[in-house]
Write a structure and sequence with these properties.
heterotetramer; A: alpha+beta; globular; B: Ubiquitin-like (UB roll); five-stranded mixed sheet; Molybdopterin synthase catalytic subunit (chains A, C)
């Protein structure tokens, strides 16, 4: 699974629960896997100064972001004994309650997947040029910043 | 030389555009930024990093004549 | 979600990818959640002395196991700021490649879900009286032991 | 007193049963185990923990007259 060219991690709009279920099903032929770990980022309806976030509009510097996702992927495969790794991130509008990030790692052993998943998610949050406009119910907005 | 400049996220509210090509005779990224600050005064007070050809660079980097991107804080995930 | 009576964590047979997808979908109305973390245990087709595991038959001391799952659940809610937690474990035959354990935690913030999920999975592995008979393709077997 | 004893996992291969009720006049869990080892010699060499009324107990615990379970190493997940 390593040394491939960067592929497109982005999906237009929210990531559906069916897509995630199908992705899990596809791994049931890989019988060396003993443990999967999945991270899902979901858009929160945060209340800020009395206004509620209704959606986030995601944009990205797509070429650089896909290159960064690829770097993170290669680093994780080098560092951890992973059988599989999949990353999907939304672009465009994702409503509160919908899923905008899906990271899926699999390994023969459980200890590995815990470490690997946290490594990958933290790297995505800090290294990938993705931008999020938090849109409130009254159509005003603010720009999201990862902490 | 001709440089393509890309703006993202909240920076596009200062520039009112996502991308532009400009002719520029300076040498360093920092010189290009001074030029952009003159054009878009609101940009000066924004927090951003600079990528040249998709790699983050310090502002004292030499311009290579290719793509420059101004990147506000990341918000992925 | 705390202080409930122990509920039955066990499901007969494998846990399907559709069940997992549906469980994810049910959380999309909970808009205070920002991060989900899911652990899936999958039966490995381990090769042992030239024979390959084709399935695990799970049994449990069910009442004690459900009480232990409940204790783990209460401890996790006390320790971590979780919005939701769900645990499902198989009983009976689960074939290689199928899923036997599904642990699902959700929180407003991501740091919490990583810590909580690992805590819960490690506790399940070490504290819950579940037993696994690894059945080989020739119908011989050995008894699984967690490490 | 009458005690219900439950066996799990590989222990059932030594006992050939999952559950039985026996009349027993001893006081400690360890005495009950000695009795079971006489009945099922193969059990003596197995690795297991003992639960009384669904709580793990040391073998020098007093029998309360309720449910005893012999639990081999766990294999959940």
């Amino acid at each position: 699974m390593t040394n491939k060219k960067p592929k497109n991690v982005f999906r237009q709009g929210a990531i559906s629960s069916e897509f995630i279920g199908d992705s899990i099903a596809k791994h049931q032929t890989k019988t060396s896997i003993g443990a999967h770990n999945i991270f899902l980022g979901q858009v929160r309806a945060d209340e800020i100064d009395g206004k509620t976030v209704s959606a986030i509009e995601y944009t990205a510097y797509e070429d650089m972001a896909n290159a960064k996702f690829h770097e993170i992927r290669e680093a994780a495969f080098a560092k951890f004994n992973l059988t599989c790794m999949h990353i999907y991130h939304s672009l465009g509008t994702v409503k509160a309650g919908e899923i905008c990030l899906f990271v899926f790692v699999s390994s023969p052993r459980r200890k590995v997947v815990f470490e690997a998943l946290e490594f990958i998610v933290e790297a995505i949050k800090s290294e990938v040029p993705v931008f999020g406009k938090e849109v409130f119910e009254d159509n005003t907005h603010q720009w999201k910043v990862n902490n | 030389m001709t440089i393509t400049i890309k703006y993202f996220g909240l920076l596009t509210e200062a520039t009112q555009c996502h991308e532009e090509s400009i002719n520029f005779s300076g040498v360093l990224v920092s010189e290009l930024l001074e030029n952009l600050f003159s054009k878009y005064p609101a940009l000066k007070h924004k927090n951003f990093q600079v990528a040249q050809n998709q790699v983050l660079v310090p502002v004292n980097t030499k311009l290579s004549g290719n793509e420059i991107a101004l990147l506000p804080p990341y918000a992925g995930g």
